[in-house]
Amino acid sequence: MSYPETIKVGFSPCPNDTFIFGALAQGLFTPRLRYETFIQDVETLNELALEGKLPLTKLSFGVFPAVISTYELLPVGAALGFGCGPLLVARKKPVNLARIRMAVPGLHTTAYLLLRFYLPELGQVVPLRYEKIIPAVVKGEVEAGLLIHEGRFVYQQYGLTALVDLGKWWEKETRLPLPLGGVFIKRDLPYEIKRAVLADLRESLNLARKNKAALWDFIRENAQELNPEVINKHLETFVNHYTYDLGEQGRKAVEVFLKWCQSRGLLEDLPQKFLFDGEAV
């Protein structure tokens, strides 16, 4: 069959994403398809997915309920695990979370959705790009900030203190890893194309696992925090066995997350199949 000339793929500049897609983006192997890469913060990718703009993209699981009829999850490339959840930080304790002005990394992020699960009644919410949240808290523009990505490793350097670890809260409630982000593909693409994409992503990841050094410059030039120790800590936290394959426990965690969304009116019907695994249909 004929493939489209290119598959446009969106991912964020965060180290775990550039690790996943780096070999593909830099042409370190010959893929089955041709790709055009588009690097943007995850909330921009979430917003584009709401319009169905990108055929292949990294997304927050927080936006999945809103796009589940358009996209399905791939079993590779996920940011999912224990001890990796968003942190709510402030300059001082205590604060009344129901009355404060709080910065969040986007209204469609998993972090914000988790915060709503944890505390349905919030004060004033200020959406900011994730890298602008720590400066906003430090300057007193907001009283608290919800941190994702590299921010969770460096906030103490700015004199901030953690109020809530939403990952630990999720783990206590579910005893499952927290689904933060995943790689999603449009449902209406032909089966053969989706299967080829999945194979290319697996090859990109395997090359990254075998030779991180070949990707280091690409990872570092896109990272918000340039300290090698922070970058490596980020990779150790967000790239794990669930990234290479969700497995049974990973799929269960996503299913439970979607059921939580359904119980709170964010998802009308849970599709029988929300994951493309490449198996024959």
What does this protein structure show overall?
With 281 residues, this protein is an alpha/beta fold. It contains 12 helices and 11 strands. It folds into 2 domains: 7-81 and 179-263, D-Maltodextrin-Binding Protein, domain 2, CATH 3.40.190.10; 87-174, Periplasmic binding protein-like II (D-Maltodextrin-Binding Protein, domain 2, 3-Layer(aba) Sandwich). The chain has helices at residues 15-25, 42-50, 64-67, 110-118, 133-138, 151-154, 166-174, 191-210, 216-222, 228-238, 241-244, 247-263; strands at residues 7-11, 35-39, 56-60, 71-73, 79-81, 87-90, 101-104, 124-127, 144-147, 161-165, 178-186. Strands 1, 2, 3, 4, 5 and 11 form a 6-stranded mixed β-sheet that branches. The longest helix is centred in the C-terminal third of the chain and has 20 residues, at 191-210. The radius of gyration is 18 Å and the shape is globular. The model has no long low-confidence stretch (mean pLDDT 92).
In short:
By secondary structure, the protein is of the alpha/beta class. It has twelve helices and eleven strands.
List key phrases describing it:
single chain, 281 residues, alpha/beta, D-Maltodextrin-Binding Protein, domain 2, six-stranded mixed beta sheet, five-stranded mixed beta sheet, 12 helices, 18% strand, 1,4-dihydroxy-6-naphtoate synthase, MqnD
- Hey, roughly how much beta strand do the residues contain? 15-25%
CATH superfamily membership of the largest domain: Periplasmic binding protein-like II
Compute the separation of the termini in Å: 17 Å
Task: Provide the structure class.
Answer: alpha/beta
Summarize the amount of helix as a percent range: 25-40%
CATH class of the largest domain: Alpha Beta
Shape: globular
Total discrete domains? 2
How many β strands by DSSP?
Answer: 11
Q: Given the structure, what is the number of helices?
A: 12
Q: What would CATH call the architecture of the largest domain?
A: 3-Layer(aba) Sandwich
Q: Could you give the order of the helices and strands? A: EHEHEHEEEEHEHEHEHEHHHHH
| Poorly predicted runs | none
How would you state the average pLDDT, rounded?
Answer: 92
Let me know the largest β-sheet.
6 strands, mixed
